[in-house]
Amino acid sequence: MNDLLSLDASAQLNALGSGRVSAADLLEAVVARHQAVHPALNAVVATDLERARRHAGAIDERRAAGDHLGVLAGLPMTIKDTFDVEFMPASSGVKGLLGRSCKDAVVVARARAEGAVVWGKTNVPVMAGDWQSYNGLHGVTRNPWDLARTPGGSSGGAAAALAASVTALEIGSDIGGSLRVPAAFSGVFSHKPTWGLVSQRGHVPPRPGTVSERDLNVVGPMARSARDLRLLLSVLEEGPLQAKAPPAELKGLRIGLWLDEPDFPLDPQVRTVVEAFAKALASLGCEVEAIRPVDGPALLAAYRRLLAPLIAQDLPPAALSKMERARSWAKLASRAGRGGDWANQVLSYTASHAEWLEADEARARFAQHLRGVFERHDLIIAPVAPVTAFPHDHGPFGQRRLALSDGRSIDYGSMLNWISMATACGLPVTTYPAGPAADGLPVGVQLIGPRGGDAKVLSIAQAVEEALGGFMPPPAKVARTA
Asked: Looking at 22, 80, 121, 173, which residue is catalytic?
């Protein structure tokens, strides 16, 4: 059964359809796997096994009767704990969000409608606001490649569960790299869709019951293969994606390699992996050239201005009031020529409407420029993060630093750099596990496509995976007690 759990979702679904395994038995196998690794990983932090077992049994009965079943029929799934699941409301790491009644988030309902057996929730940082997944309610989630390191955030529990074969499919979200960073740090696949392609209804944050689609944020699939990303996105999206379309033709594909950007630090060992990945694509017949698609620092500044009010909206009133007082002090200090760096750091969290409009115009201009870039290139390749998975650090944000392999250290906020372009401009990104760095940890690359080009990006990712390979299981023995 462990061999079956190591397969991707598509292969597990084939086993279900052929009768090799029942939905009930597959569910029990993944639950047993969860129980074995949970002391070490703490990836799945809530379960609803009684209802899941009833659902799995009902699917087995329908399959035996010859009924028409959905494309995910009988597949056990976990869900990131920022999505409402009936009887398992999203906690987002906050105790006060538990105990409320809720309906399934739109994407959860769509997965269930296709027969997915939802049995557990995966851990996140508080209000999905970190690249580490820990909170006072559920504790710390660890990376199966190295238990001393983060699996990423905010979809960190999801990524750890995927890498450790606890689940074969997950639904994550991304506003600041929350799909891409965990996939990169844990060695799995994810897809950040074009903004607006997948409903956010039922995602927390924003506050429960919000009906508007939050700016910048997206909801998308996580998996251990590109074909699984295509399958799940076809279930989640608003329109048809053609999940069964053939992989793309790689020969002649025009690829822009984005590796050099002023003020965007990059660990040399990460750079080496991305460069090797680009060379491998060139050996397959792709036309690869170095590009600078945008003025990175200028776009990052606009993105931070757009992101800041969204973060502020999720803060408790007391924390927001404190930050507003700090904002007033920072403006005065900046005018007086004192504390300018600190002032900019504080001001990055909030913005007036006029400042937001200015940033919105800036991103519109960047998006217009990128349309021209994608007329010359089918795809842009870039790093996901400046580093590989880093050690757990739960100190104050402003005091955190990221260590590079050459002895330098960089600001924690540098995690926003490479992901900013696709987020600000609403572009689709498939995160691809490009291979291990010199430290043995996974490195993910962004395969970035034009707005609305999700099907194309995913078909390219599948073709690359078939040519070069993809997911590799972590070598660590995660079943031991941490």
From this structure: 80
Q: Which member of 154, 155, 165, 173 is catalytic?
A: 154
What is the separation of C-alpha 170 from the centre of its chain, rounded to a whole number of angstroms?
Answer: 10
3-state secondary structure 218-263: EEEEEECCHHHHHHHHHHHECCCCCCCCCCCCCCCCEEEECCCCCC
Amino acid at 225: S
The pLDDT tens digits for 206-240 are 999 999 999 999 999 999 999 999 999 999 998 66
Q: Comparing 37-46, 304-313, 427-436, 444-453, which segment has the lowest mean pLDDT?
A: 304-313
Active site residue 178: yes
Task: Please say whether the beta carbons of 79 and 167 come within 8 A.
Answer: no
Helix (H) or strand (E) holding 180: helix 180-186
pTM of the model: 0.94
Dihedral (CA of 143, 440, 178, 70) sign: negative
283 noted as active-site residue: no
Of 392 and 317, the one with more pLDDT: 392
Spatial distance between the Cα atoms of 57 and 67, rounded to a whole number of angstroms:
14
**From CA 252, how far away is CA 320, in angstroms rounded?**
52
Pair 158, 188: CB distance under 8 Å:
no
DSSP 253-317: -EEEE----TT----HHHHHHHHHHHHHHHHTT-EEEE---S-HHHHHHHHHHHHHHHHHHTS-H
Amino acid present at 32: A
* pLDDT tens sequence across 273-299: 999 999 999 999 999 999 999 999 999
3-state helix, strand, coil in the chain (%, to 5): 40, 15, 40
For the chain, give the number of residues.
482
> Distance (Å, rounded) from C-alpha 200 to C-alpha 82?
10
6 a catalytic residue: no
pLDDT of the residue at 311: 79
Phi, psi (deg, nearest 5) at residue 186 = -110, 0
End-to-end CA distance of the chain: give it in Å, rounded. Answer: 25
List C-alpha distances in Å: 71 to 63, 74, 167, 231. 12, 9, 17, 8
CA 223, chain centre distance (Å): 10
Name the catalytic one among 22, 92, 165, 178: 178
Distance CA 327, CA 323 (A): 6
